Structures are given as structure tokens and as C-alpha cells.
């Protein structure tokens, strides 16, 4: 049918003779010119019906139209002459009339052209095709439901019938003339159904929204229209599923021609269109059941069917490569439909739950559990039960799709379905599948699975502190007991055992299991922890035996699994006392096995984590209570100390094993820390004069000295490990630093001497290394804090009062180490990495706040504080005064711009530590460090304001000044609320004075006096004129004139944050004034 012929036919329909009477309802049709006739096609509805009738034959078409219009007042429109009147008085008359006037269906070639024309030029080109009326309409009954969608019903019936005869067969159809022509007919039929689905979905969604806005009395008509459209969409969806069923089998052959590909492509488009529409949330559930509306007849079970899901999973697995993305897209659309249905069900349940809430103030009758009828029991949550059944049905399908033998599209789809649909319903089963898929060979599937588990960011998950904070905010974690029994249990008969996972999948399962353990409120029961711990230890044994046997365990995946095992082992031992006790009692993997493994294992990260695990075991005093006081022999820590001391001595030789020295550094630091703290907690537990203890003290001193020497090593791995080791072994758990044992004075002095040299070597000069300098600064801060309290005089020898005694030497080395930390401010390392100033400030804060118990007194210089900075006076000050004095009097006013800019982050570290301490625990207000910072708050605030106006200050410096000002306010507020000052009113006044000074600093129009408000040249000259510093005329002075002659600015514009204009600072001034006016000075710091 050519386009010209269609125009001729349509024009004959749209025109009428003057003698013909007006048809009923024609005036209403002509009132809307936009819908009365199409400019090219005339009446598109009549044209479409006439063309589709040629495909089916007049007899079949009329019967379909009559069935579609049953109960409707509409009539079938016709093109051309009216049909002959049939004499129905006799059967022969009816038969002869039909045979003489009814057209039979056309040939397949013509059918292809007709279907293409209807699809492309009627359904696609006319978006509002179903808004056209269907022929003459009876105005009295035109408002019933079927009349609203009469056009859609007729065209849908004819289009589906025309297409189904071709789409239902593998090739050909009615009137087939050959394979090639049959393929074209199927392609045209599929495109027609696709176009029809798009129009029906748009109409269905519009009718759904119309139903919610319909007036009273019209709800039934709209519901009847929606039901009619729904039935046709069900037929379209069922026909599509029938076409695609062959593609879901592994025995399906690849399409031999392009027509088959285009046909299935259109079918996938139909499934996507219908799945993304509002019909997916209908109660029938036909989208999930291959187009069969079984929701009403099966008690709502149609919404949980997986027939369509199974079909599309099969298509994504066995479809040809060119169409696999289309199958995946259809699967994603179906997943979104499931999620929408589940969210709607949850919202409905929440609404019902809120409606059932009863006011607590009203008297309530006592509940009677026997009052519920037997038939009503167990039906309170039918929808939730349905979705649980859905998960049970989906799990075998998802596990089958997750197999490595399946295409990556299927594995990716399995990860998405488990993460987005199954996880909110059955968290344990979904996480089980996601752990398995986390080790998938495809990067996309693995990343989607890890995202679903929440372990995609490996760097963040390696930090236990950050990980614990994030776990507390997560609400999507399964119960640890259920997860451990499902994944790690040996007796599990289900699919996907832990031992069947790939190495990456095993690592993901272990990490997620540890996250579940952290999220468990009660820390997991003993049986679950035992299962989890046994899985970790068996994995360690397997990896150790594989690496020592043939080297197969040294691959990248095996090393990653080793790191994951060690990380989880350290985490579970640090959080569970039962796990520590069980591991020590184990015959195969215990503390001795871990200590030896921490030195010989191949991964540096694993060595560090294994050493940390050994430290948890050695420091747990409850484990060794049954040792009859012989803790050293029972724990075997003497052997570990001796082994580490001998390995670290090899570092001084020319040839040595770097990995063993690295492991000995971490293990030795953990052992020394455990030994120190154990002896401090139980000073009379063992006889210090025994040869075993003396040997342990000697090994501890040798390890400290060796670690200090290792900080000078040229190898980064060894130098960093030794610096971290010093930081660990001198750390402590209590608030105040414990007393340093006199047996460690010599080794500690050697370590301090080497630290001073290392700080100079890697902080400045040709060997500058900011990363190593940061580690050295942390080690120096920890060492300085641990050496604050010297041994008592009763244990000192008579030679300790000389300058060469260990105590005197230690005092001198401590001051040199403090100077080395101060030297990092503005150093070459600072220019490469400005954050080192924060690290140095934290180290100084640890040194200043190491020891301050109640009643403690510090020595002070005999002379008064000089006006200018005096280094000798500073060294005689206590640590808390020494640090603040040097920062305020020397570093913050230095002429070196780098050194001056570095003072801001260092001051922030001091004030932040004091403010955090006093706000967390008000008793800390009496500590000497906090009191000293509080007394110096005006000077500290002035220093921050001047540094904020410093033109050479960079982003980190400016942010540190802003945060420092806020910390000053927090410290003043905390001191006033805790009563730490001698007078509470004084502390309150100090907080108000700080806010007032801050407001004045930002509220003036000059940078004179430390203001951070940017000053222009004109404002500078005006200020000088008012101050009579350059004469009444305001002209520049001699020096300024000389600078102008040489092309230099007489006054440099300074102040504020770089790039911040006066308008921005003016806005802050206005907001700050408003904050003061309403009595909320804390808003000042929020606005910064």
C-alpha cells in the first residue's frame, strides 16, 4: 500500500456529501480541529483499521472489532462504500453475502508493507493516535469505560492479531512466500508490536494518573478503561516472551540473517518499555509472570513470580553477542520493576503500621493472644511473606548465573539483583552471593559485588578506627551469627561454600565477616567467633604451606588473601577476648606460630598485622592468669624478644634479609610494649633478678637501640618500619606516661640520638623525604612522651648526678629531639608536603601533655621571662610551657615565611588537643598543658589572626587558622563549663572576650593592628592621614615616593584569605554582627 493510495483512501473518508445527514457526535469531533483529521492521513484510526483488515481479512477483522467494542457505543469506521445489507433470514443468504463481499487476507509481501506503514507512519508519527475518536459516537453513552479507549482497543486487537501469526512461528506466517520474505514480515510485525506497546504504555500511565484525579462518579469508567488497556498489554507481553523463549536455551542457533536480530531487538524493547511503566506495580504481576495476569486468582502470588526473570537470565546467558546488551537492559528494567513493587509494599506496610498506632494516653484493654481467629493467624504480613518466597525462588537462579562458566553479563546481573533486590529482603543470602562474586574475574561484576557489600574502598577499610566508625552508621549488615554459619560453617550443605570461592572472594568474605562482627551489638556468640577464627587460621596454614612448598602461594591473589586474613585476624583478636583465649589454646595455630610467621611471611603488610595480633595476645593478662606467676615462660615472649633482637642486629651487617628485619622490627616493638606494660601493671609478678628476666630486659634495650639505628637506614621499608616500631613500643594506654624503667635508659638514649640525626637527615638537605620525616616526627613524639618521667632516685647509681650519666644524657637528648621537631617547621620537607607541620604539632602536643597527674609540680626557671625570645630560658621551662613559648615567641614571628606559615597548623594541633580533651572529659581542665593553653588563649588567637592575614600563607595554613580560632572558642567554652579555671566567671568572660576580639578583627576596615580585612591603597592612605603619619595632605612619604619611582607598590595589599575580596569579608562582618546581636557568638566559627 503506497502512501498516495492511503491518502486517497483517507481523503474519501474525511469528506462527506452535502446530502448526507450529520452523523451523531460529529459536531463534537469537529469542535477540536487538531484531532478531527490528520493533515496527511485524514482519519488515522479508520486508515489503520482498514489496512490491518487487509492483513487479516474482513471476516476476522470484523469479528475482532466487534469483540473489542462489545459494551461500547462506538462503531467501526469504514473507508469507502458501505457494505451490502445482508439478508439474515436464511443461512444460504448469509453465506452467499459473506462470500461475495468479504475480502480475504493479502499476500505476505503486501503484509510487510502494510505493517511497516502502520508502525512507522501512524503509531510512531502520531503520538496522540489514541486520542482520535473512533467513528460516530453516541453522546448518551460515550462516557463509559470502554468508549474512552475504543480507538486503542480496536487498533490493539487488530495489530496483535496481525503480528501474532508471524511472531508465533519460527519462520513465515500466513501466506508465506519464502524464508527471506517471511523474515521481513516477522521484523515488521515485531516493530508494529513495539510501537503499539509504546503507545499503550503512555495511555496506561496517563489513565493511572487520571484515576487518582477523577471526579466522584467517574472512577468506575476510568478503572474499566485501565482494565481494558491492561489486558492488551498482557497479550503483547506474553507474545514477546513467547518469541524470546527460544533465545533462553543453550541449544538456540545464532540468527542466520539480520531480520531475526531486528525482530528480537524489538522484542527486548517491548519488555523494557512495559517493565518501566506503571503496569509493573499493578496487582496482577503480569510483568513478572510472562504476561499471565495471575495476581488476582493466586492470592497475590503473581507479584512474586520469577518466570520472566528466568527467561531473561537465560537470554543474557545464551543470547548471541550482538543482542546480549539488549537482554541485559531488559533484565535491568525488570529488576527496577521488582524494586518498585517492593518499595511500594514497604511504604504500604509502614502506612498501615502508623495507622494502627494507639495513643499511649488512652486506656487500653489487655491483649488476649487467644482472641485472634484461627483463620486470621499468620496473615498479618502477606506481602512480606510473598517477597521472602520470591527470594527463595530467585536464589537458585542467581547462583546459577553467578558461576564462572556463565557469560560476564549473567554474572554482572546476578550481582546487581543480589545487591538491589535480595539484600533488603534476605540480607544473609544476598551477602553470601556477593562475597562469591567479589572474586569474579570480570572487574565490573567484582566491583558491583564489593559495592553491594560496602568494601569497595580498600584503603578506608584497612583503618580499623575509620572502619569501626563507619560500621556504626550502617544499617544493612546481616547478623554475624547467621552470616558465619551460612558462609564459613563446615557443615553447610548449601551451594557456594567458602572453600569454593576464589582467593579474592575468600578475602572479601573474611573482610565482610569482620565488618559484621564489628556491627554486632554483642560482639557475636562464642560459637560464631570460633567458626570465623578457625576459617582464618586454616587459610593462613594453607597459604603458608603453599608458599613454602612450591611457590604457588606467592601470586598476587594469594598475597591479597594473606593480607586479608591477617587484617581480619588482628581485628578479631583485638575485639574478642574469647578469640584470644581460643587461639592461645590452639595446638596448630597459636601465638608461637604467629610470631614465627610474622618474620618469614612474604607480605610486608601481613608481617605488620601478624605482629599486631601477637601484641594483643601478649598484652592480655587474663590469658596468662593460670601460668602460676611465670608469665614469661608461659607466653614465650622471651624467645620472641631474643629472636627479634638477633634479627635486628643483622641490620648492621652488609648482607641481610630485608623482610626478616622488617618483621622483627614490628614484632619486637609489640613484644617490648607488652613486656613494659606487663611489668608496670604487675611490678612484683616475677623476680626481676632472675636470669630470664634480666635477659629479657637486655633484649628490650637492644631492640630499642636497634630500632633507633634503623631509622638512619637508606632502605625506606626498614627505616619506616623502625620509626613505626619506636612509636609502638613507647606508646601506652593510660592518660599519663608511665615511668621509664632504668634498665631501658641506655637503649632509649641511643634511640633518641639516632632520632635527632634522622630528623636532620630526612627533614632538610639532599635526603629530604617528607613521608619518612612524618614517621620520624611521630616516633619522636611518642619517645619524648614516654621518657618524661625518669626512674626514682632510689634506683639510681651514685654516678647518675654526673653529666655523663644516662639520666643527664637523656635530658640533653630530649631537648635536642624537641629542637629537631621544631626544625621541621618551615623545612625542606614542609615545602614539599605542608601537612608535616600538623604532624610536628601533634608530636609536640604529645610531648607537652605526657604527664600531669594531680599534685604534680614542675620546675621553673629562676629568672623572669625576657622580652625577646631566649633559647636558654625556653629549655629550662616545663614541656607544656616550653612548646607554647617557642611557637608564640619564635616560630609565629619568624622572618622566614615558610617557618611562619608552618606555625599555624602546629598551633592548631596544640589548641585542638586541649579543646578536645577538656570537652570530652571536664577533669582534664586541671592538666598543666590545658591550663597553660587556656591562659595563653589571647596570644594564640592574635597569632591565628595575624597568620590569617599573612600573604604567604597557603590553603592549609589558612584552614588551620580558621579551625584554630574555632578551637580557641571551644576551649574557652569547655573551661567555663567544667570550672577548670580558678573563677568560672573569668572563663566565661574569656570566651566573650575571644568572640569580641574576633568580631573586631573582621569588622575593621584596615589591616593595621592585625586585622584580617583586606586593605586597599586608598584605605591605607586615608588611615595614614588620620594618624598624621605622612602629613595632612595624605601624600606618600619619602620612602613610599622612592618605592614608586622604582615602580614598586608603596603599600602592599595584605590580609585575609588569598583571593578573598572586601565584599566577602564585608558579608562575614555583617553576619558576625548579627550573630553577636542575637547572643550566639558560636555562629562566628560556623560562618568561617
The computed structural class is: mainly alpha
Percentage of residues in strands: under 5%
Low-confidence stretches: 1-34, 137-143, 171-178, 296-302, 358-382, 549-553, 793-801, 1004-1014, 1031-1060
Figure out the total of helices: 48
Task: Give the tags.
1088 residues; mainly alpha; 48 helices; 63% helix; elongated; disordered N terminus
Written account of the structure:
It contains 48 helices and no strands. The N terminus is likely disordered. Helices cover 63% and strands 0% of the residues. The longest helix has 35 residues. It has 1088 residues and is mainly alpha-helical.
SSE inventory with pairings:
Elements: H1 3-14, H2 26-31, H3 33-36, H4 44-56, H5 58-68, H6 91-101, H7 108-124, H8 145-148, H9 150-167, H10 179-213, H11 219-244, H12 258-275, H13 307-318, H14 324-355, H15 382-401, H16 408-425, H17 427-437, H18 443-453, H19 458-461, H20 464-471, H21 480-487, H22 503-519, H23 526-549, H24 556-575, H25 577-585, H26 591-600, H27 604-619, H28 631-635, H29 637-649, H30 658-681, H31 691-710, H32 716-729, H33 745-763, H34 770-786, H35 806-823, H36 828-832, H37 836-848, H38 871-875, H39 879-891, H40 897-920, H41 928-935, H42 937-948, H43 955-978, H44 984-1003, H45 1017-1026, H46 1038-1045, H47 1062-1077, H48 1083-1087
Helix pairs in contact: 4-5, 4-7, 4-9, 5-9, 7-10, 9-10, 9-11, 10-11, 10-12, 11-12, 12-14, 13-14, 13-16, 14-16, 15-16, 16-17, 16-18, 17-18, 17-21, 17-22, 21-22, 21-23, 22-24, 23-24, 23-25, 24-25, 24-27, 26-27, 26-30, 27-30, 29-30, 29-31, 30-31, 30-32, 31-32, 31-33, 32-34, 33-34, 33-35, 34-35, ...
Amino acid at each position: 500500500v503506497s502512501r498516495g493510495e492511503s491518502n486517497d483512501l483517507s481523503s474519501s473518508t474525511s469528506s462527506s456529501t452535502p446530502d448526507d445527514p450529520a452523523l451523531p457526535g460529529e459536531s463534537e469531533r469537529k469542535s477540536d480541529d487538531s484531532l478531527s483529521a490528520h493533515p496527511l492521513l485524514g482519519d488515522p484510526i479508520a486508515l489503520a483499521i482498514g489496512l490491518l483488515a487487509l492483513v487479516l481479512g474482513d471476516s476476522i477483522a470484523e469479528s475482532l472489532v466487534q469483540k473489542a467494542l462489545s459494551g461500547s457505543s462506538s462503531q467501526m469506521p469504514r473507508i469507502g462504500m458501505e457494505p451490502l445489507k445482508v439478508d439474515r433470514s436464511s443461512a444460504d443468504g448469509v453465506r452467499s453475502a459473506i462470500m461475495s463481499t468479504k475480502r480475504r487476507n493479502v499476500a505476505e509481501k503486501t503484509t510487510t508493507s502494510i505493517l511497516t506503514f502502520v508502525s512507522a507512519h501512524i503509531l510512531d508519527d502520531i503520538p496522540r493516535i489514541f486520542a482520535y475518536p473512533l467513528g460516530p459516537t453516541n453522546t448518551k453513552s460515550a462516557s463509559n469505560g470502554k468508549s474512552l479507549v475504543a480507538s486503542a482497543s480496536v487498533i490493539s486487537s487488530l495489530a496483535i492479531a496481525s503480528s501474532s501469526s508471524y511472531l508465533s512461528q519460527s519462520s513465515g506466517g500466513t501466506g508465506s512466500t519464502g524464508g527471506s520474505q517471511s523474515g521481513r514480515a516477522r521484523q515488521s510485525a515485531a516493530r508494529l508490536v513495539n510501537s503499539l506497546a509504546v503507545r499503550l504504555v503512555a495511555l496506561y500511565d496517563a489513565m493511572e494518573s487520571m484515576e487518582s484525579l477523577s471526579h466522584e462518579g467517574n472512577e468506575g469508567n476510568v478503572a474499566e478503561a485501565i482494565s481494558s488497556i491492561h489486558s492488551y498489554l498482557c497479550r503483547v507481553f506474553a507474545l514477546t516472551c513467547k518469541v524470546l523463549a527460544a533465545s533462553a536455551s543453550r541449544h538456540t542457533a545464532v540468527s542466520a540473517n539480520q531480520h531475526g536480530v531486528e525482530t528480537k531487538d524489538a522484542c527486548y524493547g517491548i519488555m523494557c518499555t512495559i517493565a518501566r511503566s506503571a503496569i509493573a506495580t499493578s496487582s496482577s504481576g503480569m510483568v513478572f509472570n510472562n504476561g499471565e495476569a495471575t495476581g488476582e486468582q493466586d492470592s497475590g502470588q503473581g507479584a512474586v513470580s520469577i518466570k520472566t526473570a528466568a527467561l531473561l537470565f537465560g537470554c543474557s546467558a545464551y543470547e548471541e553477542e550482538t543482542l546480549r546488551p539488549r537482554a541485559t537492559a531488559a533484565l535491568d528494567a525488570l529488576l527496577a520493576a521488582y524494586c518498585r513493587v517492593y518499595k511500594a509494599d514497604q511504604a504500604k506496610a509502614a502506612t498501615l503500621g502508623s495507622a494502627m498506632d494507639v495513643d499511649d494516653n488512652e486506656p487500653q484493654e489487655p491483649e488476649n493472644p487467644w482472641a485472634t481467629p484461627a483463620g486470621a493467624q499468620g496473615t498479618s504480613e502477606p506481602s512480606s511473606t510473598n517477597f521472602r518466597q520470591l527470594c527463595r525462588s530467585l536464589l537458585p537462579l542467581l547462583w546459577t548465573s553467578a558461576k564462572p562458566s556463565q557469560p560476564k553479563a549473567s554474572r554482572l546481573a546476578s550481582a546487581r539483583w543480589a545487591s538491589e533486590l535480595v539484600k533488603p529482603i534476605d540480607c544473609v543470602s544476598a551477602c553470601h552471593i556477593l562475597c562469591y562474586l567479589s572474586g569474579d574475574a570480570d572487574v565490573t561484576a567484582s566491583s558491583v559485588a564489593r559495592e553491594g557489600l560496602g568494601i569497595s574502598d580498600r584503603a578506608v577499610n584497612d583503618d580499623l578506627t575509620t572502619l569501626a566508625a563507619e560500621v556504626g552508621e550502617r544499617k544493612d549488615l546481616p547478623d554475624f551469627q547467621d552470616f558465619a554459619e551460612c558462609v564459613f560453617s563446615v557443615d553447610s550443605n548449601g551451594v557456594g561454600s567458602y572453600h569454593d570461592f576464589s582467593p579474592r572472594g575468600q578475602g572479601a568474605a573474611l573482610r565482610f565477616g569482620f565488618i559484621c562482627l564489628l556491627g554486632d551489638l554483642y560482639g557475636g556468640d562464642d560459637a560464631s567467633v570460633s567458626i570465623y577464627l578457625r576459617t582464618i587460621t586454616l587459610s593462613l596454614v594453607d597459604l603458608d604451606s603453599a608458599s613454602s612448598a612450591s611457590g604457588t602461594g606467592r601470586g598476587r591473589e594469594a598475597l591479597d588473601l594473606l593480607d586479608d586474613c591477617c587484617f581480619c585476624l588482628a581485628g578479631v583478636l583485638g575485639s574478642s577476648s574469647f578469640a584470644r583465649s581460643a587461639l592461645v589454646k590452639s595446638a596448630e595455630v597459636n601465638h608461637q606460630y604467629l610470631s614465627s610467621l610474622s618474620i618469614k611471611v612474604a607480605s610486608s603488610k601481613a608481617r605488620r598485622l601478624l605482629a599486631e595480633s601477637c601484641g594483643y595476645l601478649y598484652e592480655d593478662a587474663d590469658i596468662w592468669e593460670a601460668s602460676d606467676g611465670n608469665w614469661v615462660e608461659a607466653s614465650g615472649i622471651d624467645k620472641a624478644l631474643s629472636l627479634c633482637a638477633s634479627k635486628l642486629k643483622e641490620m648492621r651487617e652488609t648482607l641481610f634479609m630485608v623482610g626478616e628485619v622488617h618483621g622483627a622490627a614490628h614484632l619486637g616493638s609489640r613484644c617490648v610494649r607488652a613486656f613494659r606494660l606487663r611489668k608496670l601493671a604487675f611490678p612484683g609478678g616475677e623476680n626481676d633478678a632472675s636470669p630470664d628476666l634480666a635477659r629479657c630486659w637486655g633484649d628490650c634495650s637492644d631492640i630499642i637501640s636497634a630500632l633507633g639505628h634503623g631509622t638512619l637506614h637508606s632502605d625506606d621499608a626498614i627505616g619506616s618500619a623502625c620509626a613505626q616500631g619506636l612509636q609502638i613500643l613507647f606508646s601506652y594506654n593510660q592518660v599519663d606516661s608511665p615511668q621509664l624503667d632504668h634498665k631501658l635508659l641506655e637503649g632509649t638514649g641511643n634511640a633518641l640520638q639516632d632520632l635527632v640525626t634522622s630528623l636532620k637527615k630526612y627533614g632538610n638537605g639532599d635526603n629530604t623525604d617528607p613521608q619518612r620525616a612524618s614517621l620520624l616526627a611521630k616516633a619522636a613524639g611518642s619517645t619524648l612522651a614516654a621518657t618524661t618521667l625518669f626512674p626514682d632516685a632510689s634506683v639510681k647509681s651514685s654516678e647518675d648526678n654526673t653529666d655523663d650519666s644516662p639520666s643527664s644524657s637523656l635530658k640533653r637528648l630530649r631537648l635536642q629531639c624537641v629542637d629537631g621537631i621544631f626544625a621541621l617547621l618551615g623545612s625542606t620537607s614542609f615545602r614539599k608536603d605542608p601537612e608535616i607541620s600538623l604532624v610536628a604539632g601533634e608530636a609536640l602536643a604529645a610531648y607537652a601533655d605526657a604527664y600531669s597527674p594531680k599534685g604534680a609540680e614542675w620546675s621553673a626557671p629562676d629568672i623572669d621571662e625576657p622580652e625577646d625570645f631566649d633559647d636558654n630560658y625556653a629549655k629550662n621551662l616545663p614541656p607544656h610551657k616550653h612548646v607554647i613559648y617557642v611557637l608564640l615567641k619564635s616560630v609565629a614571628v619568624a622572618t622566614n615565611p615558610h617557618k611562619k606559615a608552618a606555625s599555624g597548623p602546629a598551633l592548631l594541633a596544640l589548641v585542638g588537643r586541649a579543646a578536645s580533651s577538656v570537652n570530652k572529659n571536664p577533669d582534664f581542665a586541671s592538666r598543666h598543658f590545658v591550663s597553660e593553653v587556656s591562659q595563653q588563649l589571647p596570644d594564640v588567637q592574635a597569632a591565628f589572626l595575624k597568620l590569617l592575614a599573612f600573604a604567604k600563607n597557603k590553603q592549609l595554613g589558612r584552614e588551620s587558622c580558621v579551625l584554630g580560632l574555632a578551637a580557641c572558642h571551644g576551649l574557652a567554652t569547655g573551661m567555663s563549663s567544667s570550672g577548670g579555671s580558678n573563677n568560672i566567671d573569668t572563663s566565661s568572660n574569656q570566651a566573650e572576650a575571644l568572640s569580641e576580639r574576633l568580631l573586631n578583627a573582621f569588622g575593621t576596615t584596615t589591616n593595621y593592628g592585625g586585622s584580617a580585612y583586606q586593605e586597599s591603597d586608598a584605605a591605607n592612605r586615608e588611615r595614614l592621614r588620620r594618624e598624621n603619619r605622612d602629613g595632612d595632605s595624605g601624600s606618600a612619604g619619602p620612602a613610599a615616593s622612592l618605592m614608586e619611582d622604582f615602580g614598586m607598590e608603596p603599600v602592599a595589599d595584605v590580609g585575609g584569605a588569598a583571593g578573598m575580596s572586601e565584599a566577602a569579608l564585608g558579608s562575614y562582618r555583617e553576619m558576625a554582627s548579627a550573630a553577636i546581636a542575637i547572643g550566639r557568638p558560636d555562629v562566628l566559627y560556623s560562618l568561617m
